[in-house]
Amino acid sequence: MRLGISQASVSRGIVKLREHFGPQFIVRQHHGLAPSELAIKLAQASAEILLPIEKVLDAYLDFEPQQYTGKITILVNTFLLEFFGPELVLQLRRSFPNATFNLSQWQKDSLNDVLKGNVDYVIQLQSYQFPQQLHCRGLAQLENVLIARKNHPVLSKSSDWESIHHLPIARLYLDGINPNKGILETLYEQRGYKANFLLTTHSIRAAVALIKNSDAILFSNRYVCVNDPVLSEYALPPTPETFNLLDINGLYLQDRRGNPLTQALHQSIQTFFDSNSLIKGKQ
Description:
Keywords: DNA-binding, Transcription, Transcription regulation
Number of helices: 9
Mean pLDDT: 85
Structural class: alpha/beta
Radius of gyration: 30 Å
Largest sheet: 10 strands, mixed
Strand content: 25-35%
Family: Belongs to the LysR transcriptional regulatory family.
CATH superfamily of the largest domain: Periplasmic binding protein-like II
Domain HTH lysR-type: 1-36
Number of domains: 3
Helix content: 25-40%
Order of helices and strands: HEEHEHEHEEHEHEHEEHEHE
CATH topology of the largest domain: D-Maltodextrin-Binding Protein, domain 2
Number of strands: 12
CATH class of the largest domain: Alpha Beta
InterPro entries: LysR-type_TF (IPR050389), LysR_HTH_N (IPR000847), LysR_subst-bd (IPR005119), WH-like_DNA-bd_sf (IPR036388), WH_DNA-bd_sf (IPR036390)
CATH architecture of the largest domain: 3-Layer(aba) Sandwich
GO molecular function: DNA binding; DNA-binding transcription factor activity
């Protein structure tokens, strides 16, 4: 049997073992060197100790998403989960056909669960502040538009500030953005107007019901009106570029950056966003 190491290295190793365990640890016989009973038992014990380590290494080096049978836990911004949840779970199912999934909305105590290692992946808006224990990766950008009913009496003619400032607004709560100090209020105030919030809600369906049956408008993503025959998207009034886009980030614990499950999960989620024609790739 060839060990792949030099005779000198073997000799040095034997000398060190004899120094530690005594001269009878490895004995010289007429046909060469032979291990003592202690040496044999230590070798067997070492193999048993190394077996779990070997299994861990094999799991990392030979990880196959298609064969993974564990549970995958993902937390998603409420707003994004309502938009993308149905299609996202199908993408995950294709990538991990033998896994089970817990796909839940982000809540106020969710960060503790993430830091405890109970969550595999987080999808959240960039506006949400996270501690340094989490590694952040840009996934995509959502482009904002004005949403309202088709043939809107005002927007069908113009969507500049002077024309729309009096219109009632349906507003969606976004995690990480304080609705009492929102961007919309600032945009209106900077132009000498006061935003008229008729509805503030977590429910996209509630906001859609309102704008379908009134002159109210919604500043949001075109996902809201896709394939809806009653709604249309309209151009935003002149606004800063930072308002025109919502950045979507993927996050996971720093100590899982080399984890094969985490990397496969990120790749699957990134593929989902990259393949969506209504989403801009992360710049």
